[in-house]
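Deliverable D2.4 — example input (structure tokens):
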């Protein structure tokens, strides 16, 4: 998934008006937790504290994800990575153009390191219409920290070529076209990594609900490789034991990205992974219309609600910024039908670091 510092014009492959409802007792449970008073300090603890020297101070608690690397390389001093491979992810009959691109990070001083859920910046070659260097665009990383080859010195992106109509002409996105066209061996200016919003929880027993369409699958692919790729699991000190559920939307079967990998993971780990597809131009929803992710979510609403009730469940969503009002409206209606105030509940989930949204 990509987004720029300037306005990004939406392409035509993303359809995400997502509907999620929540049970009333979920709200009450979360509400009780959010207003619970801290337990009083036991007398013995107070005594110990009182007897300590006045100059001693309690060690500050470590912030969540405090050790995650950020901005190793900046726009004025980017790292030049070499393209290792660049190939299409689409099958015959697909709509648009989507490529998987891998860059070597070897030779960096310091080494550019990242974790799943982060992004890197790409500065396209050339100049804009004013003769100035192009501004960087951010792309969600599609590989794990070990890279596709597990060597720890590569990074991969999933890039859709942006195209839109203006004054009767088809305009190609600057950076996405640049990336889709680059050849192995070429050098690309890379910045970052950035981002802590979409990081996985450290709990190996967490439940992960993922909602993606098009290249929004990039961070989800990284999560699933970390969870289920055999070689990846051997290298990790983190072994996922919870439930993962991917909802993937595409206009056609030929547009499903990394589909064979996900099917393989599901076969190998049937108790841990569910993979639900919404193919808008080939499937029909209950009303006879096109099948979108929100329709699949509604079909499995009870199971999803049960997962959300578990405080170990996290929801991940990324896509175009313009989808947020639609999501809020849908969730507000669904929650109201169950007597829940979504406007109050959502920030509670966010505060608990269980609601992860990245839009551009």
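Example output (designed residues):
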């Amino acid at each position: 998934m990509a987004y720029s510092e300037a306005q990004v014009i939406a392409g035509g492959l993303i359809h995400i008006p997502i509907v999620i409802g929540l049970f009333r007792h979920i709200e009450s449970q979360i509400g009780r937790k959010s207003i619970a008073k801290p337990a009083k300090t036991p007398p013995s603890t107070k005594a110990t504290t009182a007897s300590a020297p006045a100059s001693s101070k309690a060690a500050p608690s470590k912030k969540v994800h405090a050790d995650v690397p950020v901005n190793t390389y900046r726009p004025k001093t980017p790292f030049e990575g070499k393209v290792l491979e660049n190939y299409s992810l689409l099958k015959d009959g697909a709509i648009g153009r989507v490529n998987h691109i891998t860059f070597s990070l070897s030779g960096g001083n310091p080494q550019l390191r990242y974790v799943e859920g982060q992004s890197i910046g790409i500065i396209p070659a050339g100049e804009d219409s004013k003769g100035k260097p192009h501004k960087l665009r951010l792309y969600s990383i599609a590989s794990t920290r070990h890279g596709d080859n597990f060597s720890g010195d590569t990074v991969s992106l999933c890039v859709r070529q942006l195209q839109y109509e203006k004054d009767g002409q088809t305009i190609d996105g600057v950076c996405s076209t640049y990336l889709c066209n680059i050849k192995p061996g070429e050098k690309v200016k890379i910045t970052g990594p950035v981002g802590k919003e979409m990081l996985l929880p450290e709990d190996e027993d967490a439940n992960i609900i993922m909602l993606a369409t098009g290249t929004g699958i990039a961070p989800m692919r990284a999560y699933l490789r970390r969870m289920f790729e055999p070689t990846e699991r051997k290298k990790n000190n983190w072994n996922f034991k919870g439930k993962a559920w991917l909802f993937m939307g595409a206009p056609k079967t030929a547009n499903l990205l990394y589909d064979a990998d996900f099917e393989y993971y599901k076969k190998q780990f049937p108790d841990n992974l569910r993979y639900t597809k919404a193919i808008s131009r080939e499937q029909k929803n209950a009303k006879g219309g096109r099948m979108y992710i929100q329709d699949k979510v509604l079909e499995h609403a009870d199971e999803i609600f049960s997962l959300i009730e578990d405080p170990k469940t996290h929801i991940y969503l990324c896509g175009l910024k313009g989808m947020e009002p639609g999501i809020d409206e849908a969730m507000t209606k669904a929650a109201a039908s169950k007597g829940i105030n979504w406007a109050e509940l959502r920030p509670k989930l966010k505060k608990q670091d269980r609601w992860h949204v990245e839009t551009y």
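Residues 4-61 have pLDDT under 50 and may be disordered.
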